[in-house]
Amino acid sequence: xxxxxxxxxxxxxxxxxxxxxxxxxxxxxxxxxxxxxxxxxxxxxxxxxxxxxxxxxxxxxxxxxxxxxxxxxxxxxxxxxxxxxxxxxxxxxxxxxxxxxxxxxxxxxxxxxxxxxxxxxxxxxxxxxxxxxxxxxxxxxxxxxxxxxxxxxxxxxxxxxxxxxxxxxxxxxxxxxxxxxxxxxxxxxxxxxxxxxxxxxxxxxxxxxxxxxxxxxxxxxxxxxxxxxxxxxxxxxxxxxxxxxxxxxxxxxxxxxxxxxxxxxxxxxxxxxxxxxxxxxxxxxxxxxxxxxxxxxxxxxxxxxxxxxxxxxxxxxxxxxxxxxxxxxxxxxxxxxxxxxxxxxxxxxxxxxxxxxxxxxx
Length: 362
Known about the structure:
Blueprint: E1 4-5, H1 7-12, H2 18-21, E2 33-35, H3 42-49, H4 56-60, E3 77-83, E4 86-92, H5 113-121, E5 125-126, E6 137-140, E7 146-147, E8 153-155, E9 164-180, E10 183-204, E11 207-215, E12 219-220, E13 224-227, E14 250-255, E15 267-270, E16 283-288, E17 292-294, E18 301-302, E19 311-313, E20 317-327, E21 332-339, E22 348-350, E23 360-361
Antiparallel strand pairs: 1-23, 2-3, 3-4, 5-10, 6-8, 7-12, 8-11, 9-10, 9-13, 10-11, 14-15, 14-22, 15-21, 16-20, 16-22, 17-18, 17-19, 20-21
């Protein structure tokens, strides 16, 4: 009898209550007191104590000493204690200042600010329909195809003098398709590549003349403009690692910069967004599809002779994890926090407490 692979049916039938029953797993042989160091992130500290760092909120949420994990500062002491059989962290401050010296300390963030800030502060994914509403680069007075800092850049929109804008180039498209009743629903976004930062010099006759403030690549005609991002101190970097809803299954669509292989600390696009209840801080485990075995008993082969009557789908292979850093409507940007091997787009991203085991039924 032909074998049927029921992977997604199995995953989708798991009760939602499973997500709430997962408990933090404390690492063995770790000191019960941890001193927060400059440069630490919430993810670093979570991984110091826990084998499943995405359950960090369960370690601190019941503790009155730590109402907000992002109010933890370098020099603080985190004490691991057990209350009613459950692990908790308690915070003790040990900062000593002389009467004449005041030291301003910055709270820790979830991941390295230099890694995640560019993707929080700037628009990186944009629906194609929204491009028509954005200012576009007209060109340069001397008909240059590539514009550098000493050139005069003109834009097809009247902008306020003195305002700063980012220049982006629409780049890699990403899409998702899903069945909706008898029809199909499709959503698309374009990755935006940061090109330059410009400032409005003056508006003239329905256009604006810009001066180039900084440059990553030469500006071209038809590049688009978006308002310059807020300063880093005003950005919300305080999301905590957490579990996504149990029913969410995502796919890594690709690398934000289009690379063929993806590794640790790189940013990827997921095909689920805040309309799917994905939010910043959600951690997904990555799985590479397992091998398909075709053929009859005694003559098994990998993905060949597909006319044979029997087929096996082997278990998917865990290869790492990602954390969402910015959720759009239908898509999300996520940082690869750990990858045991370079991987290609197309891998599964599942809630961390769900095993991506392929089951075979005869």
